Each structure stands twice: as structure tokens, then as C-alpha cells.
Amino acid sequence: MNRQTLVFTAGAVALGLAGTAHGQTATYIPAQPSSAAMAKPAIPELIPPPPQPIPVLRGLSQANGAAEAQEGSSDEQWAMSETLRFGDPQAAKDPASALTWLRLAARHGNRAAMVNLAFLYRQKNDAPAPEADEPDWLQTAADEGWGEAQDDLGRMYAEGDGRPQDLVEALKWFDLAASATDGELLGASSADNGYAVAGVMTPAQIIEAKKRADQWTRTAPSDDQIADQGWTSLRRHYYDQAISLLTPVATAGFARAQFYLGMTYRQRKDPAHSGDAASWFRKAAEQDQPGAEHMMAVLLTAGDGVPQDLPAAVEWDRKAAAHGLSLAEDDLGMMYSQHLGVAEDDAIALDWLSKAAAQGMGRAQYLLGNFYTFGTAVPKDIVEAYKWKTLAVAYTSTGSTYQREAKSDLDWMAKSMTQAQIDQATAEAKAWHPVFEVPR
Question: In the predicted model, what is the mean pLDDT of residues 258-281?
Fold first, then answer.
């Protein structure tokens, strides 16, 4: 049986098997391979999977994404890992930090991170070692219905790479991957690879593979994954959907779901539920959820749904900042610099502003520039001030007050600087990279 006949026959079988899922009967059975082929299957070359997009973040989007990653979003944690792994003009490569973010994303249920982590562990040269309590990430993602992981498992079982060669398991996982990614490039390559594998299998093996695929049951989503689904719905402004997803796990006490539910009620602005945002934020904050701790500070600062209490706001932000949350560090720097709810202490303000500015918080960069301009808690340094104001333009929202003021300040500062000073400050700003703190 030549290769062309193999692929055709396998295709007919696989198509017939796919039909049985809808109550149809497969009508074509290939000839049984020889005993030599059975002893050592000759697998045709498998089609490589299509490349996956790399979620690289830049500038302000990078700083905002980092803040969401620190608050617990597994999608943003994965994006942070990829940004630090590959680097870009605004982020130097940092493989160690990239691995830390990748592990966080996987532990928080991000299936793409699970697959990437499993791939890293399989590398032959300089592969990181899994931590003692880590599961088999590829199997976990496949069991949860992630097509890319199922396709990877199919390849590994087909080729005996990292798994014992098992054509029945290979065809099962290719079949599941093709179903999970139907209509996508990966789905087509998984189906074609299933055809190729089936071509060197007996009818009994093919039937067993289909039986296993039919009996396969997707693992129920974890609380983290449900929280991420709710967060995605919230970002798309599907508030009712977010509430429906988040309420059961939030009621059961899952802190990140409570935080996202609070965000949902706050953004929904429903008068009938005006106190629900603060209630859910408080429940999550009392479990040390950093995003919720920061949001309690935001509500207490503004008197939004709760009585205004600036000292209490500072304390909640202090707790959030202890987790490394850049948003809380930014707020603390502002509150200390403007003496809101705290005694005057420019040295403490400088410390928090420096930490927040280093994580790409544009307001902190602007205020830090002021400190260097006027010599507040630091010696005057016009070059350092110009650098931070230049960064503030890039890391604040377009058209925002702080961006407009930073641009205006740069104009009048330049009038008192030499060209060499301006060139130095500009070069330092271009070479600067944010350094994001991993949640503690």
C-alpha cells in the first residue's frame, strides 16, 4: 500500500468515523496493515501546527495589562510572559520573569500558558524544571478541551515523543482536536494528521480510538477559568452575562470572582444595586485580593457608595501595594505628595512614586518629574526630570490632563536646557524599560 493510498484510505475512514457522531455508519474499512507494519508503524510526516499569535503589549497598554495581571487576570499574565520572553522596544527580554508570569497564568487556568509551559519543559537544552506541585500541564489543558493541547498530545503519541507511542491515543486526540478547532487552520491540520495516523492502524484500533473520543468528557472549568470568563464578559460590557457567570463562584467565596463582580456592578451603574460593588470589593479585600483592596481605596477616596475616609483609603492601598500592585503604588505616591489622608512626608511620596513610575504608571512618572524639577526630597536634576516627563507623555492616556501638562512642561523646560542635556534625557527615556513586579 503506497503513501497516496494510505492517506486516501485513512481519510475515508476518518470521514466515516466523523459521520458516526451524527448517527451515521462508516461504510469504508481499509485493508489490515501487514504484521511488520503493525509491529513498527511507519507514520507519514505530520503537518506542523499553524503558528500562534504572540500577545505582545507595548507602552501604556503594557502598563495597564501589567496592572490587570497583578490583579489576577490569567490572560494578561500570559501576555506579560510572552512580552518578557521575546522582548520589544519597551520591554527587555527577561526569561526568568517570563517563566514566573507563565507559571502564574497556568496556575490561574490559562490553557495557552499551560501549553507553552509544557513546551518549555520538553526542550532538550536549558529546559527549566517543573516545580514540585505542578501537574502535567499539557494533559490538563487537553482534558479541559483546549484544541492546541489535544493536537500536541496526538503528535506525541503518534511519534512516541514524550509519551509512549500509542496510535489509538494519537487518533483519539487528533479527532478531539479537529472537533475543538473546527473551521480553524489547526482543526484542518489535526484532521489531516488523524487521517495519516489512521492509515497505519487496524480497523479495530480505529474503532477503539473513536470509542475513546466519544467517551471523553471535558473537565469542568475551574473557579479561576470562570472568573476569567466573567472578566472577558465585563470588558465587552456584557454585564448580565458577567453577573451570571461570576455570582455562583463569588457567593462560594472565590476572591477574584468577588473582585470582578464588584467591578461589574460598579461599571453597570444600576441604582438598584448601588451598594453591591462596595460589598463585593470588601468581601474580596478581606481575603487579601489586591485588586479589591485597591478598589476599596478608590471608593473610600471618592466617597463612592461608602462614606469618604482618606486614612482608611491609604491603608487599603498600602495593603494592595504590599502585593506589588502598581495602581496602588501610584495612588499612594499621589496621596503622600498631596498630603491626602496622611501626614506630609515627601520622602515616602518619592519612594512610592519611584516604584509606580518604574512599573509604567504615567501619573507617577509625571509627579516624579516634578520632584526632580523642584528638588523635592531629591537634588534638582533637570535631565532626570525631562526624562520622566518624556516617559509620562508615552505612558498616560491620549489627551489626559497629565499628558497635556507633561507636554507643556517639556516645552518650557527645554528653554532652560542645553541641547546636550535634552539629547541625554531623550536617549535615557528611549532606553528605559518598565520593570513589573510579580504579585506577592
Answer: 94
Q: What totals of helices (H) and strands (E) does the chain contain, helices first?
A: 23, 0
> 473537565: which residue's cell?
219
CA dist 216 and 220 (Å) reads: 12
The arithmetic mean of pLDDT across residues 299-313, rounded, is 95
CA separation, residue 234 to residues 74, 294, 332, 418 (Å): 15, 18, 27, 49
Condensed to tens digits (0 to 9), the pLDDT of residues 193-238 reads: 999 999 999 999 999 999 999 999 999 999 999 999 999 999 999 9
Tens of pLDDT, residue by residue over 22-36, are 333 333 233 333 343
CA distances from 393 to 170, 421, 424 (A): 53, 18, 17
Instruction: pLDDT band for 6, please (50, 70, 90 cuts).
Output: very low
Q: Which cell numbers hold the place of 258?
A: 468577588
Domains plus CATH for the chain? 1-219 (1.25.40), 224-431 (1.25.40.10)
The string of DSSP letters for 64-102 reads HHHHHHHHT-HHHHHHHHHHHHH-BTTB---HHHHHHHH
* Mean pLDDT estimate for the chain: 87
Give the confidence band of 274 by pLDDT, cuts at 50, 70, 90: confident
Q: How far apart are CA 179 and CA 188, in angstroms?
A: 10
N residues, the chain: 440
Q: How far apart are CA 216 and CA 264, in angstroms?
A: 35
Quote the radius of gyration of the chain (alpha carbons, Å). 27
- To which residue does cell 492509515 refer? 199
CA distances from 359 to 70, 90, 247, 326, 391 (A): 11, 12, 32, 6, 12
Q: What is the mean pLDDT of residues 151-160?
A: 95
How many alpha carbons fall within 13 Å on the CB side of residue 180?
Answer: 23
- Which H/E stretch holds residue 114? helix 111-122
Determine how many CB atoms are found less than 10 A away from the CB of residue 388.
29
Task: Give whole-number Cα distances, 328 to 20, 192, 436, in Å.
Answer: 56, 51, 13
Question: pTM here?
Answer: 0.81
How far is the C-alpha of 353 from the C-alpha of 333, rounded, in Å? Answer: 5
Calpha distance 145→374 (Å, rounded): 58
For residues 150 and 186, the answer to whether their CB atoms sit within 8 Å is no
403 neighbors 392 (Cβ within 8 angstroms): yes
AA identity, residue 219: T
